[in-house]
From TrEMBL:
It is an enzyme of class 5 (isomerase). The active site is at residues 70, 182. Its EC number is 5.1.1.3. InterPro entries: Asp/Glu/hydantoin_racemase, Asp/Glu_race, Asp/Glu_racemase_AS_1, Glu_race. GO terms for molecular function: glutamate racemase activity. PANTHER family: GLUTAMATE RACEMASE (PTHR21198:SF3). Pfam families: Asp_Glu_race. The gene is murI. It catalyses: L-glutamate = D-glutamate. The keyword DNA-binding does not apply. Gene3D superfamilies: 3.40.50.1860. The keyword Cell wall biogenesis/degradation applies. This is Glutamate racemase. Pathway: Cell wall biogenesis; peptidoglycan biosynthesis.
Length: 262
């Protein structure tokens, strides 16, 4: 049986990319809800409804686990989804816990970037209240990065000025860790790196999610020796077009290149 991955768009491919490193022999289906992307500026109720519809479709495709590779959808719908399905549902949240725990310099702050909905949701606010005893966490929505990614816009000359403008109100020397709390943002790690000194940590929750999935499957004794095949769906339509599949392949290659240079 395959593993289902779900995101509002192409952001979750960054999570799938890291998952392939720890579970290379599983088979996967990737569901991008492109007809309704982006999710980050919708209401919680709208996102919940869209996520439940997507998960219902994915659950019918002979999957043994589902990864909600989207911080926004996780924050809006994870409880309802887990209550409805018996198979494991792996969610995501911005990597605030490791950001605070691994902070080496007590004078440095943590900047959490995500979608507006993720940042204002009770799930994240409760996490910050629990962990941020020193009140060192700042929050920054970056909706433009989601739009860039969905448009396959990775040109540094276009993206870098946007980030510079959004970060202009901050003294960047105050920060020791930058949390990329939206899976779309991981496509831009190399551009974030240009804005911060080399000792600033830039982290996301992708590797943690992949390791969590592996642990769950091990506990279920449900690891496969499959072919590492991936099928892609745009909303409920399976992607067969070769040009579109090449676009997805380019995303994996971009992520490989980013890992090599940072």
């Amino acid at each position: 049986m395959q593993i289902g991955f779900f995101d509002s768009g192409i952001g979750g491919i960054t999570v799938l990319h890291d998952t392939l490193k720890v579970l290379p022999n599983e088979d996967y289906m990737y569901y991008a809800d492109t007809l309704n992307a982006p999710y980050g500026q919708k209401t919680k109720d709208d996102v919940k409804k869209l996520a439940l519809n997507a998960i219902e479709f994915i659950s019918q495709q002979k999957v043994k686990a589902i990864v909600i590779a989207c911080n926004t959808a996780t924050s809006a719908a994870i409880e309802e989804v887990r209550a409805k399905y018996s198979i494991p549902i792996i969610g995501m949240e911005p990597a605030i816990k490791p950001a605070i725990k691994t902070k080496k310099n007590i004078d440095k702050r943590v900047l959490v970037t995500a979608t507006a909905l993720t940042l204002r949701e009770e799930r994240l606010q409760n996490l910050i209240a629990k962990l941020d005893n020193e009140h060192i966490v700042d929050l920054l929505p970056l909706p433009g990065l989601v739009q860039f990614a969905e448009n396959f816009e990775f040109n540094e000359q276009i993206v870098l000025p946007y980030l510079q403008e959004q970060l202009s109100i901050y003294d960047l020397s105050n920060y020791g860790t930058i949390v990329l709390g939206c899976t779309h943002f991981s496509y831009y790690k190399d551009i974030f790196r240009k804005l911060f000194s080399s000792d600033v940590h830039i982290i996301d929750g992708n590797q943690g999610t992949a390791k969590n999935l592996k642990q769950v499957l091990e506990e279920m004794n449900s690891l496969n020796e499959g072919n590492g095949r991936i099928s892609f769906y745009c909303s409920e339509v399976k992607v067969e077009d070769k040009a579109k599949l090449k676009e997805f392949d380019k995303l994996f290659k971009r992520l490989d290149a980013i890992n090599e240079c940072i």
